[in-house]
Amino acid sequence: MYTKIAPITINTEKKANGAAKIFIADPAPSQEQLAGKLFILIEVEAKKSDANKIIDFVISDINTNYYQNDKLLLREKIEALKIENIFETVLVKTNKNLIDFLSNERIALSPRSINATIGIIFNSELHFSNIGTNQALLLYKEDSDSSYKMINVEKSEDTKEIGGDNLSFKKLFSSIISGEMPSKSYFLFANEALAEYLFNQELIEIITKLAPLGAAEQIKNTLVKINSYIPFLGLIIKNNINGDEAENITQYRQTEASQIISNSRNEQPSLDLKSTEEKTAQILAPSGGVNTKKVSNFCARALRALNPFRLIGRLFKKIFRRDSSLANISTTTLDRTALSSETPRSSKRGRKILIFILILALVLFLANMVYQRTKVMKTEERQENKSYEDYISQKINQAESYRLYEDKKSTKEILTELQTYLDNIPTEKKDKIEGYQEWLNKFEELMSWAQNITKVEQLKVAADFSDLASPESIMLVDGKIFGADSSKKTIYRISLKDNLNSVISSDQIKSNLKYPALGPNGLIYYLGEGQIITLNTKDEKISANKMVITEGQDIIDLDNYNGKLYALDKAKNQLYRYSLTNDEYPQGEARLKTKLEAADVNSFAIDNTGTQSDIYFLKASGEVKKFYDGSEKTFTLDIIEPKFSNPTIIKVLNDIYILDPANKRLAVFNKNGKAIKQYQSDQLNDLKDFSINEKDKKAYLLAGNVVYELPL
Q1: Going edge to edge, which strands form the sheet with 3-10?
Q2: Where in the chain is the domain with CATH 3.60.40.10?
C-alpha cells in the first residue's frame, strides 16, 4: 500500500445538537487499484435525528456515485480521464442530490451548520474538497536533515446560495485541491476543536514519531484527559511509498508511546526522506505548470556525468607525453647517446588511432549534447502541452458543473474565459494537444447550450427551385411555397404536399418583385417599379396597381396591416401608409411622430397578432426599435452570442424572428426582448428569406435556390 490511514473519533456520541462521523471506504482490491480509497470527515449541527440522516445520506450517495461511476471503467482507455475529473463530477451530482434530499425530507439546514471534508487517496495522489472549518494540515520536511514543518493547505468553499424557496443552503465542494503527497509526509484532516486543543509541535511529535494507528491512539488518550465532552474528529494519512512498516496497536500503549516521544525529543529523525520542498510546491501549485528548476537540475547532472574536457585532456596528454622511462634519466648524465638509446621511436600509427579516438569522442559528445537538448526540449513541450490540456479540462469540467444546475450565465462566463485562452494558443501547438478536437467539440456543445443555440446537422429539403428559377424571396400560404424571381418577372409555386409546381407570370409586371407582404384572404403584395403587384394565391392570378412615389423616396420594405400597405422610406426616415384608391396607391400618409434614424434599418414588421399594432424596426447592428401609435417605446433585445452581423429580415408573429445570414442563423425572441432560441445549420448558405408556420412549429428558409424545413 502507498498510504496508511488512521481515524480519530472522540466523544462524537456525546454531541447534543448534531452528529459527527468519519467514513473510510473499504473497496475490493480491484476497485481500489482502479479508483483509490474514499474518505469522509463530516460534522453537522442540527437536530440529532436530522443530522444523522444527512450524514448517512452523504456517505451513501457519494460512495455509490463514485465506485459505481461508469467513467472509472474508461480510465484505462482514455488517458485524459483523470481521477480528479471523475471525483469532481461525483461531487457535483452529490450536491444536487443533497439539495433534493433536504427538500424531500423537509429539513432546514443553516449554511453554517456543516463542516465536511471529502477526499480520494489514489496511489500517492490526494484529491480532496472542503467546506466549513475543517483543517487540512500537511507535515513535511524541506530536506532530509531538517525537522518537520506543518502548513494548512485547506481551502474552504466560497459558497453560493442555491436551492428552493424555503431552503437556504450552500453549494458544497465547488473546487478540489489535488496533488501528489511528498514521500514520507503526513496529512492530518481535523475538525476545528482538535486543531485548537493540541499545539502544532505536539501534533508533529506524535504523528511523525509513531505509526498512524499508534499516533491516533496517543492523540485520543491525550484529548480525553483534556476534555471529555467536546467531540474531536481527525484522520491521519501517511504517504509510505518508499517503505513499509508493521502497525500493531498493542505496541503503542500510552506509557510506551509517551516514553518514545520523550526519548526522541533530542534526537534527529532517522527517516530517509527526499527533499519535500518541490513536492510541497507541487501539491499547492496549480496543475500543468512546467518545473523549470527540475529541468535545469537535470541538464546540470547530465553535463557533469559526461565531462568531455577531462577525456580530451587525457587523450592529448597520451599523444604528446614523453615516455615515463625518459623522465627517470638523470639530467647530469644525459648525453646524445643515452638520449638516442633511451627514447622510444614514435608510432605514427598509434598517434593516428589516438587522434581518431579523440575525434570520435568529440563527435559523440556533440551528438549527446544534441540528443540531451532535444530530450529537454521534448520534455518542456510535453509539459507545456500538459498545461494546456489541464487548463482546458478544468474549465470544461467547471462549465459542465454549472450546466448541471442550469446556470447558463456562469457557464457562459467560464466558456468566454476559455475562448480567450484557446485563441491565444499558437496554431502549431493545437495539433499537439492530446484530445484537442474532442475538447473543442465539447466546448462548442456547452457554448451552444449556454447561448440557446440549436445546431441542426441535417435539414429537410421542403422545396427546390434549382430547375425553375433563382427566387429572392418566399412566402408560405396554405401549404404552398411561392418564390418570386425578379429577373424573370415570374412567381413560382411549389406545393409542400405533393411537390407539384406551377409558373405564375403576367405582362403587367414591369420589373421587380421585392419585399413580399402577406395580406388578408391569401393576398401577397410585392413592390415593383412604381407599382404594387398583387398575387391572389387562391386562383393564382396577378394584378398590378400604380404606386405614387415622390422624388427622393427610397422604399426598402413593405408590410400589411388591416388591408393597408405600409412602406419604409429610408431616405426620409419615415413610415408611410398606402390605401388602394381608384386602382392606384396615391401618396402615402406619414405615420411616425418620433424621428427614426432609418439609414441603417434593414427591415421592419408590424405585429398583426393582437389589438396593439406595434411596429419593430431592425437595424444592421442587430438593435431593434419599437414604435406604437407613431412614437418610440422602450424596448431592448437580449444580447446573444455570436453577435448579430448585419441581420436582414425581421418578422413578428407570436414571437419575434430575425434572419442572420452571416451566422447562418434564425434567432427567436419573445415580445419582451428575451432570447428564446437560436437555430444554426451549415446548410444555410446564401440565406435570402424565410417564412414561419407557428401552428405546425416549422420555419421555411430560402438558402440559394433551396427551401429547407426547420423544426421549431
Answers
A1: 3-10, 232-239, 186-190, 135-140, 149-152
A2: 3-284
List Cβ neighbours of 320 (8 Å cut-off, separation of 6 or more): none
Residue 11 burial (CB < 10 Å; 0-12/13-18/19+)? middle
Rg (CA), the chain: 40
Cβ of 156: how many Cβ atoms within 10 Å? 16
The model's pLDDT over 231-289, given as tens digits with 9 standing for 90+, comes to: 888 999 988 765 444 333 333 333 333 333 333 333 333 333 333 344 444 444 444 44
Pair 483, 702: CB distance under 8 Å: yes
**How confident is the model over 8-54, as pLDDT tens digits?**
988 777 666 788 999 999 888 888 888 889 999 999 988 888 888 99
Alpha carbon 225 to chain centroid distance? 51
What residue ranges of the chain are covered by domains with CATH 2.120.10.30?
460-711
Query: Which comes out higher in pLDDT, residue 250 or 188?
Result: 188
This prediction has a pTM of 0.50
- What's the rounded Cα separation, in Å, for the pair 602 and 486? 19
CA angle 118, 122, 123 (to 5 degrees): 145
Superfamily of domain 460-711 in the CATH hierarchy: TolB, C-terminal domain (2.120.10.30)
What phi-psi label fits residue 554: left (phi over 0), alpha (psi between -120 and 50 degrees) or beta? beta
Percent of the chain with pLDDT over 70: 80
**How confident is residue 538, by pLDDT bands cut at 50, 70 and 90?**
very high
366 CB-contact burial (10 Å; exposed 0-12 / middle 13-18 / buried 19+)? exposed
